[in-house]
Amino acid sequence: MLQSSIRNFCIIAHIDHGKSTLADRFLEITNTVEKRFMKSQTLDSMDLEREKGITIKLKAVRMRYEIDGDEYQLNLIDTPGHVDFSYEVSRSLAACEGAVLIVDASQGIQAQTVSNVYKALDAGLKIIPVLNKIDLPGSEWEKIEEDMVKTFGFNKEDILKVSAKTGEGVDELLRTAIAKVPAPAGDPQAKVRALIFDTFYDEYLGVVAAVKIEDGSVEADLIHGRKKIRYMATGAESVPESIGIFVPQRKTIDTLRTGEVGFIATGQKDIRTVKVGDTATLAEDPATEQLPGYKEVKPFVFVSIFPIENDKFPQLRDALEKLALSDSSLS
After folding, report:
1. 206 phi, psi to nearest 5 deg
2. In principle, which of 109, 119, 184, 286 could form an S-S bond with 259, CB 3.0–4.6 Å?
3. pTM
4. Domain spans of the chain?
5. What is the pLDDT of residues 10-25, one digit of tens each?
6. Domain range 3-180, CATH architecture
7. pLDDT tens digits, residue range 77-100?
């Protein structure tokens, strides 16, 4: 896949404005997930997310889409809308060149809408404004459209009208994203630099890092040759177990090229050595300069937790360390 054919973008919006439903339509239109396996909020894999009907963890997925015989690779990141999970949004913006901004055509501009727009602008992303839920009887999309023009300065003709539920206008939205979101600008010939924008723990593979390859490429001979990866912020090194992509489940592949989004199963069992916002590079031929990370979340609430039985303290400590790995608001 040519670098010029890659598009990395995220979906940002206030809570319950239809991000996960729109992601479902994207997966359906691009045939990333077969219809028989489709379900509501496909990318929301946590039990709590499905129970509450909200997105808590950001999710990355690779899709393929063809326009006039040209195939494009779309790397989508679905983000949470609830204010309590706003740090997840900042993590996803670091791995994107564009953002689809969704506004509910019946509720209009809300607090997190404004917050997310300014985060995307600060990150230098191309914003595609979208009015969702135009099929609802209570839709006031003409009024909300005027509000978006006045509040954010969008051109009226640039605001797309879609229904994520019925699929109306979603195909046009995908085509617009491909046309307007710039391709990643990394250097394929440079030394490897991969931005770690999310991490989670696997009992068998250790820390799994979701990454965007900013420069160079990561290939399978890294695995076969037992070569090491270095994490520039901590200075730690490890031999990775596998590399791959999210489709949306993990799928092992041979190469992650410049601009692509995927994962590296680091093989690292010490969860404190792989930090979100860090830069991964090759230990034998390392890059000299770290990628600019995003701002660390400052703690506002301090809580002391103790187990009822003192001998359970090691288990509590291990559990909190693993939670902190995938939840950057906990430190």
Report:
1. 80, -145
2. 184
3. 0.84
4. 3-180, 194-282, 297-331
5. 888 887 777 878 888 8
6. 3-Layer(aba) Sandwich (3.40)
7. 876 544 455 555 666 788 899 999
